[in-house]
């Protein structure tokens, strides 16, 4: 019985997050209330407060639901493929792009994060978490850049941190523009060429 209750609670939580995604994408975060989300999810506001402290906490959980699998995959790839750091970077980015472009949850959440949220007041913590996640991604890429230099895949004069930040900015730019105009920026079609061009450019003078 306890197991069934836990499963039902998780189902309710996912239903709330699904409703929040839909409403945040359509109305924006600031114009969506917890009452709106409760009505769309078919639950009471009390049910929302059972799972989340406030709208900011709910927003963070919505983002975490799609970001956590990406970070888990990043750690998995780093352990498996760091013998070829450049190929690791390419696989890491293209794997993330495939997941983001192929799953409606990812598309909605990234559109909300980039275009439908003002990071002030109760959403300020969400901005901090977003920045922390970005720093973790840059650190992963920087480690790969250092290893690539050690293996002679990148020139000694390259600054690994700056190169990692550039790669992160490239990825963010692709996703931001894709969520805004997917017809002009078809992510899965353009991303491999753009990423390869950047990585090949880093290899100059090797």
UniProtKB/TrEMBL annotation:
Q: GO molecular function of the protein, one example?
A: transcription cis-regulatory region binding
List residues annotated as DNA-binding. Answer: 33-52
Q: Which UniProt keywords apply?
A: DNA-binding, Repressor, Transcription, Transcription regulation
Q: Which residues form the HTH tetR-type domain?
A: 10-70
Any keyword Magnesium? no
**Taxonomically, which superkingdom?**
Bacteria
Q: What is this protein called?
A: TetR family transcriptional regulator
Its source organism is Sulfurimicrobium lacus
Give the classification, highest ranks. Bacteria, Pseudomonadati, Pseudomonadota, Betaproteobacteria, Nitrosomonadales
């Amino acid at each position: 019985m306890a197991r069934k209750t836990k499963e039902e609670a998780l189902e309710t939580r996912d239903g709330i997050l699904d409703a929040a995604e839909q409403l945040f994408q359509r109305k924006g975060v600031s114009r969506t209330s917890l009452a709106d989300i409760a009505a769309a999810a078919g639950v009471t506001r009390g049910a929302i407060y059972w799972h989340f402290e406030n709208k900011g906490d709910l927003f963070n959980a919505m983002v975490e639901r799609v970001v956590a699998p990406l970070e888990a995959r990043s750690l998995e790839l780093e352990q498996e493929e760091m013998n070829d750091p450049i190929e690791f970077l390419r696989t890491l980015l293209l794997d993330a792009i495939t997941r983001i472009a192929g799953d409606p949850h990812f598309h909605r959440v990234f559109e909300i994060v980039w275009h439908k949220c003002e990071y002030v007041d109760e959403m300020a913590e969400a901005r901090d978490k977003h920045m922390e996640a970005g720093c973790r991604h840059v650190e992963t890429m920087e480690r790969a850049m250092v290893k690539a230099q050690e293996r002679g895949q990148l020139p000694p004069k390259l600054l690994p941190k700056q190169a990692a930040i550039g790669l992160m900015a490239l990825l963010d730019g692709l996703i931001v523009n894709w969520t805004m105009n997917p017809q002009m920026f078809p992510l899965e079609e353009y991303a491999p060429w753009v990423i390869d061009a950047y990585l090949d450019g880093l290899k100059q003078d090797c």
